[in-house]
Amino acid sequence: MLSPLVATLRSSPIQVMAEQTRQAIQQGCSVIDMTLGEPDFPTPAHICEAAARAIADGQTRYTPINGTPLLREAIVEKFRRDNGLECTMAQINVGCGGKQVIYQAFLATLSPGDEVMIPAPYWASYSDIVSMNGGVLRPLATAPDEAYALRPEVLEAAITPKTKWLVLNSPSNPSGTAYTQQQLEQFAAVIRGSRNQDFLIMVDDIYEHILYDGRTFVTFAQVAPDLAHRILTVNGVSKAYSMTGWRVGYACGPGFLIDAMTKVQMQINSHTSSVSQAAAAAALAGPQDEVRRRCGIFQQRRDYLLAQFAQIDGLATPRPEGAFYLFPDVRSFIGRKTPAGLRLDDDVALASYLLGAGVAVVPGSGFGMPGFMRLSYATSDENLRVAAARMAASLGNLQ
C-alpha cells in the first residue's frame, strides 16, 4: 500500500513528455526533442580532467555532508566574485543538484498549511515539492504582455500570516524572465513593509550565467543585504557548465537554515559524489570564457526562433531575457481541429498533436499556466530549423 501522499503525487509533466518523446523516437518517428532543459554542449574538458584526477588520487570516499572543503571554498569565492555576497563555509549546503537543495529547504521548514508564493509560470517541480512537504502553493499571477514579470502589488496582496516562503527564479524556467535591480528593490520594499516578517525568500539562480542582450545579473541578497538572514540563494553547475548528469547543486543561507538542511541531508543521501564535487570545484574556480561563449550561442538560437515564430499566425511569444526556453501563448489554437478532425481541447492535446508532427514540447499547464507551452532551444541550429518549419506547418493546418 502506498502512502496517501505518494498516491496523489503526479508525474513531472516535463518527464512525461520526455518519455513520450523517447518512445516515439524508438518507434522510428522523426522528432525534435525540445522538452528537457539540458544544454547540448559537452562538459568542458578541464572539468572532466579534474574529475579524472580526483579518481586517480583516490578521492572516492565519503566527504563531509555539506561538501568537501575544496568545493565549499570555491562556492564561497564564487558568491564573492560574481555576486558580491560574503558567505562562510558554514553557510554553504551542497546537494545532489539544486532540486535536492530546494527539497531539503522546504522539508526543514514547512508545516501543514504553510503557504509558498511562487510567480506563475513556475518550474513544475516547485509545486510538487511544496505539496510533498505539507505546504500550500500560492501562485502569483503574471502576464505575457509584461514578460511574465511579477508586479510588486501582486506580491504585496498575496502575503498572509500563513506565508512561509517566497520563491524567485531569475532568469526563470520556463519564461526566461530576468529581474533587474530596480525590480528586486521593489520586492524588497514590499517585504520590509509586510506585517509578516517571518517568511523566508528562496532565490533560485540556476540560470544566472545565461542572460542576454548585455544584461547584468543581480541576485536578491545583493540588493537587500538587510534581509540576508531570511534569504536562501540556490545555484548549481548543471546549466552553465553542461553538467546535468554530475548532480551538484548548492546554496548559501542563514546558519539556522543550513544546519537544518544538513540534518535532513544526513538521513537521505549523506552527500553527493566525491568525484562530482571535484569537478564542480574546477567548474566554479576555473576559466569562465566557455560559459560566456555558449551564452552567446543560446542568444542566437533565441533570436532565430523568435523570428520564425513571429511568422506563425496566432502564436504570441514574449522575448525571454535569459535561460534557454520560449514560453509562447498558444491559447488561440485551443479549440481548433486537426486535419483528422480531432478537437484540441487544451494545451496537453496541442502538445500531443505537435509530437505527432515531429516536435516535442511541454504543456504550459504543467508550469501553472494552461494555454501556453514551453520549448527548450538547448539543441542544434539544424534541429531548431526543422522544428520551426514543422511547427509552422502543423499549426497552420489547424482549422
Helices and strands in order, then pairings?
Blueprint: H1 4-8, H2 13-26, E1 32-33, H3 45-56, H4 69-83, E2 92-95, H5 98-109, E3 115-119, H6 124-132, E4 136-140, H7 152-158, E5 163-169, H8 181-193, E6 200-204, H9 220-223, E7 231-236, E8 249-252, H10 255-266, H11 274-285, H12 289-309, E9 325-326, H13 347-356, E10 359-360, E11 362-363, E12 373-376, H14 381-396
Parallel strand pairs: 1-10, 3-4, 3-5, 5-6, 6-7
Antiparallel strand pairs: 2-8, 7-8, 9-12, 11-12
Protein name: Aminotransferase
Enzyme class: transferase
Domain Aminotransferase class I/classII large: 31-390
Alpha-carbon Rg, integer: 21 Å
- Which segments are poorly predicted (pLDDT under 50) over 5 or more consecutive residues? none
End-to-end C-alpha gap: 47 Å
Helix content, binned percent:
40-55%
Strand arrangement within the widest β-sheet reads: 2-8-7-6-5-3-4
Largest sheet: 7 strands, mixed
Strand percentage: 5-15%
Kindly state the number of beta strands. Answer: 12
Total domain modules = 2
General form: globular
Instruction: Kindly identify the CATH topology of the largest domain.
Output: Aspartate Aminotransferase, domain 2
CATH architecture of the largest domain: 3-Layer(aba) Sandwich
Structure description:
- With 399 residues, the chain is α/β, with parallel strands linked by helices.
- Helices cover 41% and strands 12% of the residues.
- It folds into 2 domains: 148 residues, Alpha-Beta Complex (Aspartate Aminotransferase, domain 1); 242 residues, 3-Layer(aba) Sandwich (Aspartate Aminotransferase, domain 2).
- It contains 14 helices and 12 strands.
- The protein starts with a helix and ends with a helix.
- GO terms for molecular function: pyridoxal phosphate binding; transaminase activity.
- Keywords: Aminotransferase, Pyridoxal phosphate, Transferase.
